[in-house]
């Protein structure tokens, strides 16, 4: 029974659940970025370039009789740059929030009754001396 309890404790810990949520959201975000790059950015950028080169699509681009298929590579590079930029912005924002929380000093605790009494005694002794 100890193994099952240990596994349950491990699986229900906040860090494991946070990691799972992060992986799922990251996968969904990756699909959104891929669609953005493949369906919007790539056609908008490559369309005019292909027309200027007199090509209908990238499949007709050949070098020494070999088709050069670099469209997917460009899509992956653009996707990587977008995802890296978004992650950088998110991490920078989280770090700034943490820094503000750490920098904000809390008010010093009020002196206890004993400290107040000792301070009064010290002050009285100073005036008598």
TrEMBL record:
Localization, UniProt:
Cell membrane
| Highest rank taxon of the organism | Bacteria
* SUPFAM superfamilies the record matches: Gated mechanosensitive channel (SSF81330)
One MF term in GO for this entry?
A: mechanosensitive monoatomic ion channel activity
Q: How would you describe this protein's topology in the membrane?
A: Multi-pass membrane protein
Its family remark reads: Belongs to the MscL family.
What gene name is listed for this protein? Answer: mscL
Question: Could you tell me what this protein does?
Answer: Channel that opens in response to stretch forces in the membrane lipid bilayer. May participate in the regulation of osmotic pressure changes within the cell.
Looking up InterPro entries in the UniProt record yields: Mechanosensitive_channel_CS, MS_channel, MSC/AndL, MscL_channel
User: Which coarse location class applies to the principal site listed for this UniProt protein?
Assistant: membrane
Q: Which Gene3D superfamilies match?
A: Large-conductance mechanosensitive channel, MscL, domain 1
Assembly: Homopentamer.
UniProtKB keywords: Cell membrane, Ion channel, Ion transport, Membrane, Transmembrane, Transmembrane helix, Transport
**Source organism per UniProt:** Pedobacter paludis
Q: Which residues cross the membrane?
A: 73-91
What the entry lists under HAMAP family is as follows:
MscL (MF_00115)
In its UniProt entry, what is this protein called?
Large-conductance mechanosensitive channel
Kindly list the GO CC terms recorded for this protein: plasma membrane
């Amino acid at each position: 029974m100890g193994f099952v309890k240990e596994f349950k404790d491990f699986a229900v810990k906040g860090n494991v659940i946070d990691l799972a949520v992060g992986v799922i959201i990251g996968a969904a975000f990756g699909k959104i970025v891929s669609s953005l790059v493949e369906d919007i950015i790539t056609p908008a950028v490559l369309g005019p370039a292909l027309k200027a080169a007199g090509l209908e699509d990238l499949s007709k681009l050949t070098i020494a009789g070999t088709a050069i298929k670099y469209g997917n590579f460009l899509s992956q590079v653009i996707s990587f740059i977008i995802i890296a930029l978004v992650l950088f912005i998110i991490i920078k924002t989280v770090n700034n929030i943490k820094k503000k929380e750490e920098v904000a000093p809390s008010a010093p605790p009020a002196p206890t009754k004993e400290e107040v009494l000792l301070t009064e005694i010290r002050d009285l002794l100073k005036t008598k001396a």
